[in-house]
Acetyltransferase (Sphaerisporangium melleum), 184 residues
Amino acid sequence: MIELRRAGPEEFAASIATVIDIYTVAMRPPDDQLSGRQSIMRHHATYPDFTCLLAEEADGAVIGFGYGFHGSAGQWWHDVVRRALEEREGAPAAAAWFDNALEIAEVHVRPEYQGKGVGRRLVHGLCAGRGERTAVMSTHDEPTAARHLYRRLGFVDLITMYVFPGGYERYAIVGAPLPLPPMP
C-alpha cells in the first residue's frame, strides 16, 4: 500500500537526490537540465506555505512526490504566467486565478506506479485544507495521462500551447477552484 507523508522544506531539501531521480525517470529531461532543476526545486522550498507530499511504499521507498506553495509576485513562474494570462484574457481573469493561488510546481510518480491513483492522491493531498482560492500549474500540452488526470480533477485550461521564455516545449497552464471536488 502506498502512503502519503508530508515533508517540510528541510526534509524535502535533504531528499533532493531521491526527488530528482523520480523526476528524471518520470520526465526523461535532457541531462543538462538536471542541475538547474535541482537548484530550482531547492529554491521552491523557501517559498511561502511550501507543502510537499512523498508517496512511499511500506518499506519507506519513495515512489512519487508533489509539492506546491503560495504563489506571489516576485516568483518567476507566477509573474511570467500571470502576465501571459493577463495579455490573453485581461487583468480581471489573471487576478481571479492568481491573486490567491496554490501553485503546484511538481507532481511526479515513478513510471511503474503510474495509473494506480498515486498522482491523483498527491494532487488532492496538496490541495486539501489550503486557504487559497485556486490551484494552478503547468503541464505538457499533449494528450498525456497527467493532462487527462488534471481534467478529471477539475482543472481547466487557462492558456494552451504556451512556450515559456527561453524554452521550446509547449505547455498548458491549468487551474481549478479550491477545494477540489471529493475523490471518488
